[in-house]
Amino acid sequence: MGRGNSLQKLQSGTYGKGGEVLDWTYYDTLKMVVATTVYRMFQAPLSSSRTLDETNMLSAGMIPQGQKHVIRALQINYTTANAFATVDIQSFYTALKKTVVEFIIPGKDTMGQWPLMQLLGAATLCAETPTAAGDNIPIIQPRYHGIMPLNTPIRLAALTPFEIRVTAAGAAFAAALADDLIWIGLVGTLRRSS
Fold first, then answer.
1. For residues 120 and 78, what is the distance between their CA atoms, to the nearest angstrom?
2. Distance set, CA 66 to CA 62, 69, 156, 170, 192 (Å)
3. Alpha carbon 180 to chain centroid distance?
4. In-domain check, residue 179
């Protein structure tokens, strides 16, 4: 009898009545366009034109019915479309400095504003041009970590509309950065009905 109960316990738990709690990241990707200064992320869900490597949002700009997502960190990744030439490094640094990421829930004040360089962990941004061939004077380098823990979690209940707004001041995205990708993940705990 005891052995039967143990086996039954081991075979239960995958499907339950109370829903499930998961570590989860909702994510979205934007492609930089030189003439665009404001981007609205998490507004276009997974579809025939948006693939799983770009987004895993199932609903445009909201958490699906039957879910609640508590965001404990923002994760960010930057991918270049082309290899940078030496002169493009300063353009990249300028874009990181002049670009601001905001978490928006309509009807509320902004839930957070962060320069892109802060989200990436870029404490110093220095380009170097050697004054003589062979110069190799090291510059303090930032420790890019790409994750910003939130001291106060952002809670998104089912059907709550939201967006991540990325604003580039002026011409922050130089031609050298065209088609580069910024990926943002909302890292946290997802509660959903089974």
1. 9
2. 12, 10, 12, 41, 6
3. 14
4. yes
Number of independent structural domains in the chain? 1
Q: What is the pLDDT of residues 62-114, one digit of tens each?
A: 999 999 999 999 999 999 998 888 888 888 888 888 899 999 999 998 999 99
Share of the chain above pLDDT 70, in %: 86
Give a yes or no: residue 116 inside a domain: yes
> How far is residue 140 from each of residues 123, 125, 137, measured CA to CA in Å?
9, 9, 10
Q: What is the residue whose two structure tokens read 């109960």?
A: 5
Residue 105: inside a domain, yes or no?
Answer: yes
How far apart are the C-alpha atoms of 140 and 124, rounded to whole Å?
Answer: 7
The mean per-residue pLDDT over the stretch 32-52 comes to: 91
Residue 154 lies in a domain: yes
pLDDT level of residue 162 (50, 70, 90 thresholds): very high
Between 158 and 140, name the one with better pLDDT.
Answer: 158
Q: What is the dihedral of CA 46, 51, 56, 58, to 10 degrees?
A: 10
Predicted structure pTM score: 0.85
Residues 6+ apart with CB under 8 A from 138: none
Which amino acid type is present at position 25? T
